[in-house]
# Entry
Amino acid sequence: MKRLSMTTSLTRKDPNTMCGNDLKLFVRRRAANRAGSAIFDRMQVIISVSNLSKSYASGFEALSNVTLDIRRGEIFALLGPNGAGKTTLISTICGLVRPSTGRVTVGGHDIITDFRAARALIGLVPQELTTDSFESVWATVSFSRGLFGKPPDPAHIEKVLKSLSLWDKRKSRIMTLSGGMKRRVLIAKALSHEPRILFLDEPTAGVDVELRQDMWALVRDLRETGVTIILTTHYIEEAEEMADRIGVISKGRLILVEDKVELMRKLGKKQLALHLDQRLEQIPAALAHYGLVLSDDGHELIYTYDAKKEHAGILALLRGLDEAGIAFRDLNTSQSSLEDIFVSLVKEEQ
# Structure
């Protein structure tokens, strides 16, 4: 009991009066508490979607019974073919589309019954370039901040514009900007009111490589400050590089939500390519059960195997090739990309 009271008194001490071992212990405990708090925050759910469906008068069902939790501070990538329901899902969460059934909360606020509080937490970068052509960059970004009831903050607007390389264009009218610059303005407008959640709907569609790299650098910086990022993209390599978790949607149904690394481990396939010494006319019957694929020129055999299983099958295959008198001069392995997995999942759903 005495030890407990000493620990308690240490945490209540003013760090300015501590010295020596007491101060070191205080610093270590504070760092540990912050680290634990960061992990706890990351696991908290900031967006909760429950049994969400959206049907139109024509009978078309854009979303079908979607259930999804998005964690605070993560980068979540939503993948799907054109017309899969990505934009409808994002628009519903942001309050732009009214759901037919189901419930959505943002930061604990219902998007219908407490819509003002929910929307105040959200910044949205839409696909379409919709801006006031005759306004200056500074004016339109500042106006967007005011729409959320935020007081003027020139320092914040300056910081946002500089981070998007828009500072030199702050006095320019929107109509004079290039397509890439206009997309930067959309991002600046979405960040103007300091949202805790940022939706990026196809943010790099039609932009140059430099802007794409700038945007992803900005996304990383935002995540470091605790902002939750939800993006849809056709550039699957970006999702593979940036996202913490991946969701795949097809025909309005969320068919998979998985940690990116775990998804690659579970669904990734590996291929072993054997470059043969001599041309092979056909695969011997004794090797048929391996499911080998022979290249058109007969000089390469490809063996596809499960990445999460042991490689005993490879050793058996190599012995079989030796017994069949098939020699090879080189071999290499490759693993499925996220794009391969995505295409496979969508085909299965169809």
Residues 129 and 183 are 7 Å apart (CA to CA). The radius of gyration is 27 Å. The domain at 268-349 is CATH 3.30.70 (Alpha-Beta Plaits).
